[in-house]
C-alpha cells in the first residue's frame, strides 16, 4: 500500500440551492453525492472510496 501525503480530506463549497449544486458537482465529478446532517446543517458528501 502506498501512503499519499498532503491530500485534501475536507473542503466546503457554499451553495444556496443544494439540489442544483449536487447535480452540477455530481455531473462534473462523475460521482454520486449524498446528503447528510452535521450538527443540524445539511451537507453533501462524497464517498472517498469512489475517488481514484
Walk me through the topology.
Blueprint: H1 18-29, E1 33-38, E2 41-46
Antiparallel strand pairs: 1-2
Helix segment tally? 1
Helix/strand/pairing class, anyone? alpha+beta
Reading the helices and strands in chain order gives HEE
CA gyration radius, whole angstroms:
13 Å
Total DSSP E strands: 2
Measured between the Cα atoms of the first and last residue, the distance is: 14 Å
Helical content (DSSP H or I, runs of 4+): 10-25%
Mean pLDDT across all residues, rounded?
83
**Given the C-alpha coordinates, what overall shape results?**
globular
Strands of the biggest beta sheet: in what spatial order?
1-2
Low-confidence stretches: none
Descriptive notes:
By secondary structure, this protein is an alpha+beta fold. The longest helix is centred in the middle third of the chain and has 12 residues, at 18-29. The chain is built from 1 helix and 2 strands, in the order H-E-E. The two termini are 14 Å apart. It has a domain at 18-50. The mean pLDDT is 83.
Amino acid at each position: 500500500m502506498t501512503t499519499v501525503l498532503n491530500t485534501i480530506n475536507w473542503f466546503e463549497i457554499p451553495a444556496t440551492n443544494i439540489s442544483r449544486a449536487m447535480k452540477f458537482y455530481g455531473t462534473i465529478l462523475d460521482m454520486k453525492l449524498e446528503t447528510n446532517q452535521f450538527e443540524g446543517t445539511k451537507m453533501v458528501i462524497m464517498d472517498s472510496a469512489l475517488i481514484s
